[in-house]
Amino acid sequence: MTISARALEIADKVEAFVRQTVIPYEQDPRRDHHGAPLDELVYEMRDKARVAGVLTPHVLPDGSHLNQRETAVVLIRSGLSPLGPLACNTMAPDEGNMYLLGKVGSPALKERFLRNLLDGRGRSAFFMTEPAEDGGAGSDPSMMKTTCRQDGNHWVVDGRKTFITGAQGASVGIVMAKAEQGACMFLVDLPDPAIRIDHVPNTIDTSMPGGHATITIDNLRVPADQMLGEAGEGFKYAQVRLSPARLSHCMRWLGACIRAHEIATDYANRRQAFGKVLIDHEGVGFMLAENMIDLKQAELMIDWCAGVLDTGSLGTVESSMAKVAVSEALMRIADRCVQVLGGTGVTDRTVVEQVFREVRAFRIYDGPTEVHKWSLAKKIKRDWKAAHAD
Hints:
flavin adenine dinucleotide binding; AcylCoA_DH/ox_N_sf; Acyl-CoA_dehydrogenase; alpha+beta
């Protein structure tokens, strides 16, 4: 399947917007206590993206989506700045939440909750992960402690959540809880007095507004018609969201590492040491050559996994493989870029140090590398046993 001319045109427009309009905002001081962009900055950039015709560019005017391979060429370009996905409305968790709502939501839920997200006029949060000290769900969602029970025409939700990206300042939440029937998902308007933000920690990454909050949900009453899909199907819906969302992260951070490599390459071709430019020293030139290899391998892995998802497969195995391969490759790239820049690489004089921090966090969220490897090893064992069954 080839990438359509329409998708390539959209991607070119997104790249031009990010390079010309968004990158100058990287030094904008409108940040919160630990460096994440304030909503004032986010919505100012989105207003400009709306005028430029690149807001939510992967969703077409008729509501249909570009396919995953086409989405990749667009989201990679949006990631050329850590602010690009925020400006273009392709950032997590909103992009994944919009995808899930589009796949599972009823027409009424789409009209009430999806429209503002597509228009870039609100942010969302996905409430799944729970505190380790409570024995709650992390990489293993079957450990979920948050409960929901039906009470007339409402559901009542109680529990705690943690690392809820963007919860502070979000207008829409997707809350996951466990009922007798199994896992359920609910759409809620935010803020809600029954959903209390206990703490927003400082974290190594600073690209996502609202931080990664710890939440207490106390007697949250949700109308029954705000359940997303059917009771007991929450884990299935989570996979509908998570496999493409993992890949979308790979796309965006590949874009950021392309930019970091550009900066390191420019520096290596200008900076003199020991009588010649840095790139002529094998120690530096070889690092940039290795970056070129890793960038291409990451691009090919993303394209392959996107092609699998475009067949209609959930792609859980493929997205796990892509998450491991791409996140580890991008970490190597970001680390080399810092090294090439030397002292400058550990300062905020360029975006490279932020890309390094963001990609380091990426190796953990949406499933740490080790969890995905463990899952893949289980599949290898199942396949072996099936092939050797009597």
